[in-house]
Design goal:
The complex is a heterodimer of chains A (about 325) and B (about 300).
Chain A: H1 23-67, H2 86-94, H3 96-127, H4 134-146, H5 149-159, H6 165-173, H7 190-214, H8 219-227, H9 232-243, H10 245-260, H11 264-269, H12 281-291, H13 295-323
Chain B: H1 7-44, H2 49-55, H3 71-79, H4 82-113, H5 119-128, H6 134-145, E1 149-154, E2 157-162, H7 169-172, H8 179-189, H9 195-202, H10 207-215, H11 220-235, H12 239-244, H13 253-256, H14 267-287, H15 289-301
Antiparallel strand pairs in B: 1-2
Helix pairs in contact in B: 3-14, 4-8, 4-11, 8-11, 9-10, 11-15
Classes of the chains: A mainly alpha (about 325), B mainly alpha (about 300).
Chain lengths: ~325, ~300
């Protein structure tokens, strides 16, 4: 679109009363004016979103960087003071709760990521069959996803009680051999209990992502495989799985980032306890940076969390590029 | 038809039928696993506390039998300002989603259909911000919003004050612009033929008119997808209002839950409260389930 003649001149570009240059020049002038107007209008229409993103995304990210090198406090008459790497040193050498939170976060992600991804794929394969009533099952498996994680956490907190539903169900299944236990009050089971409900709540989401991946695989490939006598298992290994590469990367990355951000379940169910066995990076960042008003240190923990997410995103880019 | 031809097709038919039976069995077991906690919640919300506990050991835990009433619901309304919390959540959700649709679609329009300096740079920056999880910036952002200026009327005189804490706008404004929504709009708008814009330009239409009258009406599915994907997080807000809203009459439903855990937990009322804030979302989901499912699927396609 560099040739001036191909761009239509808006009628109001050269109004009568304007200086009237030669026809060709006038046209070029009008085009340039229209261009300029388009440029201004384009920026103007994008501006509200861009300003908001700047204010509530870019600046907070920069603040996370900046504040983590200071002793800023949420409510304080004194301006923040530069303290160098003190916060980072404190996190890695003088704050056992931070190290424990990081470990818990990794354990949580290490279990949730593979299990939830695999279960999601299993569900997707089940509901991808062309059999009657399959849509209803899709909807049912998705219902926990639309239920707030706050509600889910409270509900499961109730069910995990010593005299709660989970114990009574295990009791029924084992014909009374089960001694009920308070799942969330025991440091050895609390994180596991949170893992179970987290998978239960979110797996339906990833079922749908897998499902949309499954549906991009052409039916003709399966027909060809069947004609070659491939068993269902062989079809899955040689047709389905290779066709799901980019979906797999997407699912793994979204689950990993969500898992590393674990907060609500902990806040509602255990407040990080018992004895910090369920404290996580984000929970610790909120505890320090907000509840104990140490914004600077909280920002440091947030920043460490962000670096982890960034590494995973870069690994994702690397993995997807390999395939292309 | 009547004469069985060979054994092979019969066996294959058999195998297929057996697989179908297994699939239904597996899906039914899974359906029970996915539904039982919610059935338990809804049923328990109708029972007095003592019966909830005594029913737990039997299948009655999942059946609305015994001393069934709406007492827990009345109890909830007596104990906490539920209607106020619901109003706050509806207000925050509607404004966040509504303003987000306008602001993000305008940005998507400018990024996909107009030529301006820095456009491609801006687009790649917007996409780059997608990897920033909200949890990363939550703590610094509390500090940030506590310093932002705000206009207050003091005895009818407008005056500047500092700090956005304890307000509606602190719950809405930071979440209007959404990089993922901008990305989805940009993608969708670029599938609509640009010749429409040119024709409208010849007829003297301005850019905003083209956006408003020509492109936006053709992008219904994109608007629906963005509305659905921004509705749930807005309704489910927890971490943010927990930190920035201490004033009870401004709090949303999810944070309002805290009032039930002060002394002895009245589980019947808790179940009534959680049912009360879950049912509206379930109703919306079940009535638009097709749109929900395709929206979520669309969010994965970019991968």
């Amino acid at each position: 679109m560099t040739t001036p003649t191909s761009t239509p001149v808006p009628p109001h570009a050269s109004r009568p009363g304007d200086r009237a240059p030669a026809a060709a020049a006038g046209r070029r002038h009008g085009t340039r004016a229209a261009r300029r107007r388009e440029g201004r209008a384009g920026f103007g229409m994008a501006a509200p979103a861009l300003v908001l993103l700047l204010l509530f995304l870019v600046i907070p990210v920069l603040l996370a960087f900046g504040l983590s090198f200071t002793n800023a406090r949420l409510i304080s008459p004194n301006p923040p003071r530069f303290v160098g790497l003190d916060n980072f040193l404190r996190a890695f050498t003088a704050d056992p709760v931070f190290l424990r939170s990081m470990l818990n976060t990794f354990v949580f992600a290490a279990v949730v990521v593979p299990v939830q991804a695999a279960l999601g794929l299993l569900l997707a394969v089940l509901v991808n069959q062309k059999i009657r009533g399959v849509t209803a099952f899709r909807v049912i498996f998705f219902i926990p996803v639309v239920t707030s994680i706050v509600v889910v956490s409270i509900l499961w907190r109730f069910m995990y009680q010593e005299n709660g539903l989970i114990n009574s169900m295990i009791d029924t299944i084992t014909f009374g051999a089960w001694q009920g236990m308070a799942w969330l009050n025991d440091p050895s089971t609390a994180l596991g209990a949170i893992i179970v409900l987290s998978i239960w709540q979110a797996v339906g989401f990833h079922m749908l992502i897998w499902l949309s991946g499954l549906q991009t695989i052409p039916e003709a490939l399966y027909e060809a495989a069947r004609m070659d006598g491939a068993t269902p298992r062989q079809q899955f290994a040689n047709v389905t799985w290779p066709g799901l590469h980019s979906t797999m990367v997407f699912v793994l990355v979204t689950i990993t980032i969500a898992a590393l951000g674990l907060f609500v379940q902990v806040d509602v169910m255990t407040q990080g306890g018992p004895v910090n066995s369920t404290s996580t990076l984000v929970y610790h960042a909120v505890r320090k940076g907000y509840r104990e008003l140490e914004t600077g240190y909280g920002a440091t923990i947030s920043l460490i969390f962000f670096v982890l997410v960034l590494i995973i995103a870069l690994v994702q880019r690397h993995l997807t590029r390999d395939k292309d | 038809m009547t004469t069985p031809r060979t054994a092979a097709p019969l066996a294959e038919h058999d195998v297929r039928r057996r697989r179908k039976v297994w699939s239904y069995a597996a899906m039914s077991v899974l359906a029970v696993i996915f539904l039982f906690p919610l059935v338990f919640m809804l049923v328990s919300s109708l029972k007095p506390d003592s019966q909830i506990l005594s029913d737990i050991g039997s299948p009655q835990a999942f059946l609305p039998v015994g001393d069934i009433s709406l007492d827990n619901y009345f109890g909830v309304f007596d104990r906490v300002p539920v209607s106020r919390f619901l109003f706050n959540s509806v207000l925050v959700t509607v404004l966040t989603v509504g303003l987000g649709l306008i602001v993000n679609s305008m940005a998507g329009f400018a990024l996909s259909r107009m030529r301006w300096k820095g456009r491609s740079l801006v687009l790649s920056l917007v996409i780059a911000t997608l990897i920033v999880p909200f949890e990363t910036i939550a703590v610094p952002m509390v500090y940030w919003v506590s310093k932002l200026p705000t206009l207050v009327l003091e005895g009818g005189v407008p005056k500047y004050d500092f700090g956005w804490l304890n307000s509606y706008h602190v719950q809405i404004v930071p979440f209007i612009a959404n990089a993922f929504a901008i990305f989805l709009f940009t993608q969708y708008f670029s599938t609509i033929p640009k010749s429409l814009d040119e024709a409208a330009r010849i007829d003297g239409a301005g850019w905003f008119t083209i956006y408003r009258r020509i492109v936006a009406p053709l992008a219904g599915p994109a608007f629906a997808t963005v509305a659905i994907l921004t509705f749930l997080p807005a309704w489910n807000q927890y971490l943010w209002p927990l930190m920035v809203v201490q004033q009870e009459d401004l709090r949303p439903v999810m944070v309002g839950m805290q009032y039930f855990f002060q002394l002895n937990t009245a589980w019947g009322e808790v179940m009534a409260y959680t049912s009360l804030i879950t049912i509206p979302v379930l109703v919306v989901f079940l009535s638009f389930q097709r749109a929900f499912v395709s929206s979520v699927a669309a969010s994965g396609v970019k991968g």
